[in-house]
Amino acid sequence: MRIVNHTGRDAMQLYLANAGAPLGANRLVRPLADGAALLQRAGPGASCLVDLRLVLADGEEEVRRGHDVCAWPAIVLGNAPPRPAPGGGAPRPPASPERRGPSTKHT
After folding, report:
1. What is the mean pLDDT of residues 33-50?
2. Is 61 domain-assigned?
3. Residue among 78, 48, 74, 80 nearest 63 (CA)
4. What is the structure's pLDDT at 44?
5. Which of 18, 56, 93, 98 is most deeply packed, by most CB within 10 A?
6. How many distinct structural domains can be found in the chain?
7. Using CA atoms, how far apart are residues 13 and 11, in angstroms rounded to an integer?
8. How many angstroms separate the CA atoms of 15 and 52, rounded?
9. pTM of the model as a whole
10. Is residue 103 a part of any domain in this protein?
């Protein structure tokens, strides 16, 4: 399987196991930089469903449970860069309450 780090931070530890099994030992021998990918073998007795935990440099974690690597052999962790909107241009983020116009609700 291919594991891609799109978290915006370096990953320091990677744990991977069959779904529901203990995650075992850290599989990274060096940090996995943001935007980098690596190939991992699930190992003997592997099933299609895996659990994965990626520990980032700031201590935050990205977790996936029950990921089907037979159907989806790539696991992308974090937020991928935004894709262009149809017709060109970058997608617009949803309006936050601070950016919305005046309320039209009358009391």
Report:
1. 86
2. yes
3. 78
4. 72
5. 56
6. 1
7. 6
8. 6
9. 0.69
10. no
